[in-house]
């Protein structure tokens, strides 16, 4: 079976996470990321080269939440 191509728009936290998840689910999938700039590129037009995501865990004595934290 020929894998379907997948297109992801953007290389921010959500775009790159989505692309990685698509490849994780199907390693043979052709994932294309469409962007003008990738994180780390230096350009005045790049939205925010210092943007990022922060996570504060709420997992306390809860096996399922602790597993999610460990995976992500």
From TrEMBL:
Tell me which positions the record assigns to the signal sequence: none
- GO cellular component annotations of the record: cytoplasm
Q: Which UniProt keywords apply?
A: FAD, Flavoprotein, Oxidoreductase
Top-rank taxon, per record = Eukaryota
Q: Cofactor(s) for this protein?
A: FAD
Q: Which Gene3D superfamilies match?
A: NAD(P)-binding Rossmann-like Domain
The family database entries (InterPro entries) matched by this protein are listed as:
DAO
Cite the GO molecular-function annotations of the record. D-amino-acid oxidase activity; FAD binding
**Biological process according to GO:** D-amino acid catabolic process
Q: Could you tell me which SUPFAM superfamilies the record lists for this protein?
A: Nucleotide-binding domain
Q: Which PANTHER family does UniProt cross-reference here?
A: D-AMINO ACID OXIDASE, D-AMINO ACID OXIDASE (AFU_ORTHOLOGUE AFUA_5G11290)
Q: Return the protein name.
A: FAD dependent oxidoreductase domain-containing protein
This chain's source organism reads: Exophiala oligosperma
